[in-house]
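Retro notes, item 3 of 5
We never archived the inputs for the 2-acetamido-2-deoxy-beta-D-glucopyranose complex last cycle. Fixing that now. Sequence and ligand:
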Amino acid sequence: MVTFFLLVLLFILHLLLLNPFLAMCQIGREGEWCLLHSSIGISSMHMQLLHNNKVVMFDRTDFGPSNLSLAYGHCWYDPSDNVLKNDCTAHSLLYDIGTKTFRPLMVETDTWCSSGAVLLDGTLVQTGGYNDDDHVVRTLAPCNDDSCDWVEFPGYLSERRWYATNQRLPDGRIIIIGGRRQFNYEFYPRKSESSPSFWLEFLRETRDDDENNLYPFVHLLPDGNLFIFANTRAISLDYKQNRVVREFPSITTNDPRNYSRSGLSVLLPIDENEPIEAEVMVCGGAPRGAFSRAKQGIFDAASRSCRCIKVTDENPSWAMEDMSMPRVMGDMILLPTGDVVIINGAESGTTSWEIGQNPVTRPVIYKPHEVEDIRFSVMSLVTRPRMYHSSAVLLTDGRALVGGSNPHPYYNFTGVQ
Ligand SMILES: *[C@@H]1O[C@H](CO)[C@@H](O)[C@H](O)[C@H]1NC(C)=O
Ligand SMILES: *[C@@H]1O[C@H](CO)[C@@H](O)[C@H](O)[C@H]1NC(C)=O
Ligand SMILES: *[C@@H]1O[C@H](CO)[C@@H](O)[C@H](O)[C@H]1NC(C)=O
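Structure as it came back at the time:
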């Protein structure tokens, strides 16, 4: 009896102290899900946490009218928008974690499949995008009132950047790598009016049949060089001298990550003890030919394999492990504990409009320091699919925020998968 009351008391304390949102949550031993909003009017294709505990969310400007209006009287006109030239709806918003409220932001250029990174002062720099907006740089500086909004710099980039990858560098600059049919990289801020871009033959060599090499995986290594993974190959790049320092063994041929945008990668947390060891993990993705087969209605099972490589080893090789289930188009989140959550995505098909199938409704957690058999475990079920164009970020209190998913080329709120 005493134990029972103690448990009840502990539970109430937990309610009061630990989680003010618990009332809306499904509790489970493998984590809990809380639905914050059933709709925010746009689809969070991209999300970035800012240092003042607000999250900027955005999708694309040529989806048609969203279900979130801009402030009264605010509209914008884009003659090259294929769907809606005069638009008074928002395609971006700023979400306040503390109050669970949001306000629309005004982004006029198309952020579809753009890429970003955050400067040392906390400003989000978002680069490239679709159509005639693929040379745009946009910034969003955090503010604690309602004054901040996107500031856009058309024509800033030297090359078009659609599906590029960005990484902040130790000197505070941002490197922007690749993108559709771009086998080169450039930096933000640029040095002068015409900033050069630097050729990277590796990106050309790893392109697919359609000359694509989308969203390569990029990690900053402890020695200051960049790990870049594309297709089945990986290198370490000295971007200061535009020199490939070394090429790692390629991931074996039975599970290529051609559509690098559909597999996942993370640099595992680095222990400060000498010698410094850095390990990169690459998981999931779609098998060779999955895209063309999916277009014919045949949806291949996604890959369930994960591979890890200790990039600081003299002769590194890829170690193989299996996730608890296959996954394509997922997201990876590093937790403060050093564990990795693998979340969102599909079990079959691949990345593109309408061709992902069988949503993976359970995240898995990967504990790098556990023994092999229990490194992966399955977390709580969620009922909402999060597939193509979904996103996930870690919040400052250790929760993961997930959003988005729109496999359709418009905002269709009802009557679609
Ligand atoms: C993957 O890349 C190889 C070589 O670059 C190419 O032959 C193959 O068709 C690609 N697969 C897909 C699904 O694009
Ligand atoms: C989705 O939206 C588009 C554009 O508004 C429309 O043409 C299409 O018919 C919609 N599809 C469905 C299934 O509602
Ligand atoms: C659109 O927004 C309104 C509130 O502004 C809400 O009542 C409605 O349910 C939303 N529709 C959809 C389909 O999300």
